[in-house]
Amino acid sequence: MSIKKEDVNYVAHLSRLKIPDDQIERITSQLACIISYISKLNELDTRDVPPTSHPLPMKNVFRKDKVKRSLDTEKALSVAVQKKDKFFKVPRVIEES
């Protein structure tokens, strides 16, 4: 498959990229090399290769949850800059319309 300058300009337009005219030739050449390399993959026999969603084995690295007592309300509120009853008081972030 050959790549033309028009193809690069078209893909750049779809991608909302502005490519300077002096770089179009270089990018066209680079994309042609990439597509040539990828086309070599079509020569491989992959019938016995199972489909994967990730190239490396995935494992969960998170620890198991441990059940423990939560922080006491009064102790949590003891560091509050402002509080009202049993709640932290914070500046309003949503304006009323």
Task: Tell me about this structure.
By secondary structure, this protein is mainly α. The protein has a domain at 5-43. 36% of the residues lie in helices and 4% in strands. It contains 3 helices and 2 strands; from the N terminus they run αααββ. The protein has a two-stranded antiparallel sheet with strand order 1-2. α1 crosses α2. The radius of gyration is 29 Å and the shape is elongated. The mean pLDDT is 90.
User: What does the overall shape look like?
Assistant: elongated
How far the N terminus sits from the C terminus, by CA atoms, comes to: 58 Å
Q: How helical, in percent, are the residues?
A: 25-40%
The number of helical runs is: 3
What is the CA-based Rg, rounded?
A: 29 Å
Compact overview of the structure:
By secondary structure, the protein is mainly alpha-helical.
Overview features:
elongated; 2 strands; 97 residues; single chain; 4% strand; 3 helices; mainly alpha
Write the layout of secondary structure elements.
Elements: H1 5-14, H2 21-40, H3 73-77, E1 83-84, E2 87-88
Antiparallel strand pairs: 1-2
Helix pairs in contact: 1-2
